[in-house]
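Quick one, probably user error.
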């Protein structure tokens, strides 16, 4: 497991979903300027979801353990 952190630098709420091996799953709401941290398996996929007038959409995808 690797420590993963994310800071919401947007002016709106985002949803962070982390999906990994062996049914690993974390979903958190992140408010503007908030920082979240949790442990995740290496190579887990983190999806950053946002919402606007067009609906819910993925804003970014990050792989845990890869340089940002």
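Nope, works fine. Designed sequence:
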């Amino acid at each position: 497991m690797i420590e993963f952190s994310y800071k919401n630098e947007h002016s709106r709420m985002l949803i962070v979903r982390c999906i990994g091996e062996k049914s690993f799953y974390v979903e958190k709401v992140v408010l503007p300027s908030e920082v979240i941290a949790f442990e995740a398996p290496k190579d887990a996929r983190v999806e950053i979801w946002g919402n606007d007038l067009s609906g819910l959409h993925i804003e970014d995808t990050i792989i845990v353990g890869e340089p940002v």
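Strands lie at 2-7, 14-19, 25-30, 35-40, 45-52, 55-63.
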